[in-house]
Design brief:
heterodimer; A: about 230 residues; Rossmann fold; B: about 80 residues; alpha+beta; Mth169, Chain: A; 3-stranded antiparallel β-sheet; about 35% helix
Chain lengths: ~230, ~80
Amino acid sequence: MKSAIIIFPGINRERDMARALTLISGRAPAVVWHAASELPAGTDLVVIPGGFSYGDYLRCGAIAARAPIMDAVRAFAAKGGLVLAVCNGFQIACEAGLLPGVLMRNAQLRFICRDVYLRVERSDTAFTRGYNAGQVIRVPVAHGEGNYIADGETIARLEGEGGVVFRYSSPDGMVDPNWNHNGAMNAIAGIINERGNVLGMMPHPEDHVEASMGRTDGRGLFAGLVDHFKLAA
Amino acid sequence: MKARVTVTLKSGILDPQGKAIEGALKSLGVGGVSSVRQGKVFDIEFDGADRAGAEAVLKTAAEKLLANTVIENYRIEVTG
């Protein structure tokens, strides 16, 4: 699996992501600067990592979404290439029009940095084949703007076509306002586009991939992607 | 030439920051405030004096960057 991590000024989670990708796929990702106009030839997976691109100025992800490399990412996605967008990456993907909706200020106005439980809603995507549907995983979040919202029509479409991939839940998989840390609509933590090749999520699966991190719940996502490309080859 | 673009949240979009400000006003004893919505103001200067041209440029700027039209409305005023 040849992956490429996109870096914008202010992105700060690229090294965690590179470490996870290298560990699980056995291959170090390419690192692509925002001003580049092309992705490396043969890229299988584009990853937009977390951080605070452009200091979150204007709106989170708004300026990064208009950077030159994003035209190449949009073209890559339009051809069916896989894009994983985590945290600020998710905000960038929404601003870039790769995914619907917006990530607003957390409902309780606080930056949240803690482990959360996610219910995996689907196991039949390239990103979640390493999990079982209904499985609960525990991964960290670290964001101030993770409150997913979209208009009623978009939410209905997402729910209707299986666009919601991860939902904030209790440890036993119950969706409940007490476990919906940022107030996201329908407790949405991660969504996938209709074609199934662009996934955005606020939590950080790359931060739970080694025993030394305390948990390895995030490995399934990367291991699933590796399997996806093995089977496709 | 000067212009102002005002970006506000669409009605129906929850505004937690506006709510917090509303609460703070109440706790300060500032009475009669029933609702606060927070927005953004961009003051923009132009070379030249082509008013219609400036309005077209500002519309592009607002649509492409200044506002996220999924959640926000914008208003353009060329102030001369």
